[in-house]
Each structure stands twice: as C-alpha cells, then as structure tokens.
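Before anything else, study the sequence and fold tokens given here and see whether the fold suits the sequence. Record follows:
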Amino acid sequence: MTQPYVVRYVGGPLDGRVDSLPATPEVPRQVVTYVHLHAGPKIVHIYELSYAVEYGCEYVLRVEDE
C-alpha cells in the first residue's frame, strides 16, 4: 500500500487547505497560482513549494515586496 501525498497551504485564501493525492508526483509543481474571481477585479495569489518538518511539502503564500 502506498502512502498518499499530502500537501498543505499556508497563508492567503487557501490557508489551512490540505490536498491529498494517491501518490507522490514525479515532479512536484514548484509554484501554484490561485485566481480568485468575483464581482470585482481578478485577484491572483501565488504559492511556492517549501518543506516543513512537521508536514513534508507545503505551499506558502508568496509575499510581494512593496
């Protein structure tokens, strides 16, 4: 039996979300883009892959420099 591949999201609108895939992808995506569409302008959030000791892989919200 294989272990599921679990990814957590940190920050932004996806904070706390956990995705589970049946197996580890050969090449995990380094960046995930989340686009929020609503009545106003399109809002784009970018998450970067990182490693956390507690969870393994997680995507952390990229903070833009002002």
In short: The mean pLDDT is 86.
